[in-house]
Specification:
- By secondary structure, the chain is mostly helical.
- The chain has a domain at 2-67.
- It is 67% helix and 0% strand.
- It has helices at 2-16, 20-27, 31-40, 42-72, 76-86, 109-121.
- Helix 1 packs parallel to helix 4, helix 3 packs across helix 4 and helix 4 packs across helix 5.
- The protein starts with a helix and ends in a 10-residue tail after the last helix.
Length: 131
């Protein structure tokens, strides 16, 4: 009974702030206990994943709200961040340049013999045996 209540409190705290250490402290349980419960109880592990996702969503919503407020206050860094993430013209770009060169070297006698053997196996005779 006590364990179920502790798990419930832990999950509530994790939804508020999706940080394991913080939720453990607020629920008054050691991290080792949390990890043991998660390992031993698949239902609890699934609930942890769901609570973590819900908490991360909440934090993302709060962060975006704060970012919009900063943009309205004409904060250049906030404006720059928003544009880089949401507008293709301002997105970071990666430019790759290079040159590919190829040098054909003549085949060695051993390589020619291997090629001849392979062509013989395929029952094909090239017109120019010197290549």
């Amino acid at each position: 009974m006590k364990k179920a209540k502790e798990k419930k409190i832990f999950l509530e705290k994790l939804r508020e702030t999706p940080i394991t250490q913080f939720a453990c402290r607020k629920a008054n349980i050691p991290r080792s206990t949390f990890y043991r419960w998660k390992k031993e109880d698949a239902k609890f592990a699934k609930a942890v994943a769901e609570a973590m996702a819900e908490g991360e969503g909440l934090i993302s919503d709060l962060s975006e709200s704060q970012l919009v407020s900063l943009i309205k206050d004409r904060n250049f860094q906030a404006i720059h961040l928003w544009l880089r993430q949401h507008h293709p013209t301002y997105a970071e770009k990666l430019k790759i340049e290079g040159k590919i060169t190829s040098e054909e070297l003549p085949l060695t006698k051993k390589e020619l013999a291997l090629r001849r053997a392979a062509l013989n196996l395929a029952r094909y005779k090239p017109h120019d045996e010197s290549k």
